[in-house]
Amino acid sequence: MKLLIASIPEVSVDERKEALLRASNLALARGVTTVVDVGRYFPGASVELSWEDLSDVYRWADSTRQMKIRVCLFFPIETWSRLKGLIRESGRKLSDWIFLGGVKAFSDGSLGSNSALFHEVAIHAIGDRANHLILDLYESVISANGVRDRRLRIEHAQHLAAASAKRFGRLGVIASVQPDHLLDDADSAAKKLGIERANRGSYLFKTLLSQNAELSFGSDWPVAEINPLKSIKTAMFRKPPGWEMPWIASECVTLNEALKAYTISAARACFLENEVGSLSPGKLADFVILSANSLDAFAMDMSVHIEATYVGGVKSYP
C-alpha cells in the first residue's frame, strides 16, 4: 500500500472541483440526489485528505452555488474529536447541501476510539470474521455506554457467520450493503470459500430483513457502477452475468424492500430521514421520473431509465 500511495500523483484543487461537478452530473443522470462521501481518504493515506475536500471543494461549491447533489460526509476515525467539535459548533447540517455524518474505519484499523464517540461510526467489514469482530465491538460499546440512537453501521457486510444476521437486528446495527458487488463475487466466492460456505453466508439481504436489521443500499462507486435502478434489479433477481438462475434465490428481496433500502433506510443510515428519503410534507422534494408507467412495469423491464431528476423541486437532469 505504501508503494502505491507514493506513486499516486497530486491532484490540484481545481481538478478536484471539476471532478465534483462531473461526478454530480453523472449521479443526477442516474437518479441519485444524495451521496455519502469520505473524500480522497483510504487506508494509509493522510487523514487530512477528507478535511481538505470539505474545505477546498465542498465549501467552495456550496458558497458559489454550484452544489448539485446533497452529500453526507464521513471522516477518518482518527479525527473523530475534530468532527465532534465541528458538530457541536455547527450541528450536522452545514447547509441544505452538506451534512456531517460520522467517522469511517476499516476492520483491520485502530478502533480504540469507538466507545468515546457520540456520533455515527461506519466500519468496513467484508469477511465473516471481520463482521463478527465489529459486532462484538459495537455490542461492547452498547453494553458499556447504554442503548441510544447511534445508528452504528457496517459497510459491505458481504459474508456473515451463522449468528451474525440476528445480531445486526438485536443490536440495531445498520447493514450498509452494495448489491452490485454480488455480481462480481458470485463466481469467485465458491472457489475461495467453498460452495456450501459461500451459499450459506453471502449477501444475506432477506435474512437480515427477517431478523429486523435495517438494510441500506448504496453503490460503493467508483468500485462499482453508480446506478440504483440496476442495483435494485440486482437485489431482486441476483443473477450474475452468464447465470440463468439466481445466486442464493432465498436471499432475493422484493421491489418494495429494495426501494426502501435505497431511499428511506439509506436516509436513516445518515440521520437524514427528516430531510430526504421519502416524499412527505416538510421534506426536500428530491425525486426522479422513470420511463415506466407502474412499479410492476419497472420491476420486469430492464430497459427502464431515468427521464428526469429533481433536487429540491427543481429539475436538475436533463
TrEMBL record:
It comes from the Eukaryota. Pfam families: Amidohydro_3. GO terms for molecular function: hydrolase activity, acting on carbon-nitrogen (but not peptide) bonds. Residues 9-314 form the Amidohydrolase domain. InterPro entries: Amidohydro_3, Metal-dep_hydrolase_composite, Metal_Hydrolase. This is Amidohydrolase 3 domain-containing protein. It comes from Kalanchoe fedtschenkoi (Lavender scallops).
